[in-house]
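Why show two proteins at once? Because comparison is the fastest way to build intuition. When a single record is shown, students tend to memorize it. When two are placed side by side, the eye starts asking what differs. So, the first record is below.
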Amino acid sequence: VYREFPILGPVSVTASKAALASAAQGKYEAFHNALMGGTRNLNADEDVFAIATSVGLDVERLKKDMESDAVKNEIASNFQLAESMGIRGTPAFVIGDQMFPGALQLDGLKNAVEQARLAARSATPPKP
């Protein structure tokens, strides 16, 4: 589950709001991947909207959807969740009942998932 957590300044807020609003056009994953995997630096709101255009989003609709109560409430909720969990930066991963602040290499991520699966299996009583 991705959670938008805009902590890197005003353009980060724009990008987070745009990402959430992109879901209304069925483009969240494409937009998220373009934001996170691109080589373009996000220095201004126009950079966010250029990426939105590149993945086929209707930018005028996106801008309107970004100001919806649903988008604003989601971001506020994400800040409350992060605070309650002690998350102060990105990325952060919650796998099973463990939190991993910062980036994880693929091997570390796979190991954490496997450990969580093992713990879940041992905590679940066998079926009769």
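Second record. Ask yourself what differs from the first in the token line.
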Amino acid sequence: DGFTPKFNLSFDATPENMIYVQASKGFRLGGVNTTVPADLCRADLDTLGLSETPGSFGSDSVWNYEVGSKNRFMDRRLTLDASVYYIDWSDIQTTMSIPSCSFSFRTNAGKARSIGTEIEARFALNETLDVYGTLGLTDSALTEDVMFSPWKDGDHVPGVAREQISAGARQAFTVFESQDAYARIDYSYTGKMNTRFDTGHALNRSYGDYHMVNLAAGVRLPGRPIEASVFVRNLFDDDGLVQASPAGLSSPESWITVQPRTIGFTIQAYF
């Protein structure tokens, strides 16, 4: 069980401009550890100050504090939303290795914080052409050393990209009826990430740092509630890595890439 409150206060400064502040809490469930042979792992358990490994590990939790605004300008041709946030992460669920016997167990250790901003903008250049973009910047790091591990205050949190960027444009045009067709292009970039806090470790793997370009075009059939479209995802067939895992005792090195170039056709009917 858990208690996850959320508090939000917003103020309409004008009919087209709103500012807000909010705070919210979340948690991740704990779990049960597998049995580790205490006699076989005695040397490392003594170093950790344990007579045996814990049978379970607890929940970790985050508090998120955010302030932002949502704005419309130029008769709503320009939309601009922005926010900054601070996330406090405590009792981090951590895998603790026991190298002398090649076992590991889960426990709660360490604290971290994330500071970031998100900005989203959309602008109608004219009645048929929209351009848009987003920017996300995040600095996420430990705020204390983690006992019995090489993880130190200031180490960047694994799996968190420092930057995420996207942009695109959508052009409407006429084929059969007014503005019944469109073409769009979308671009995105995901920054570099690591699998471990201690990036100098031999088992650390870097991933991310890839670009994606998608294309799409569609048209509504005249007199029918049907839209046909074609698309190309990952136009340049980028093989960016979205997940990485080093080799283990019972598993090989593994990687997961983005979906390769994919060309498709869709038909949608509206009722």
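One difference worth noting in the second protein: The longest strand covers residues 206-220.
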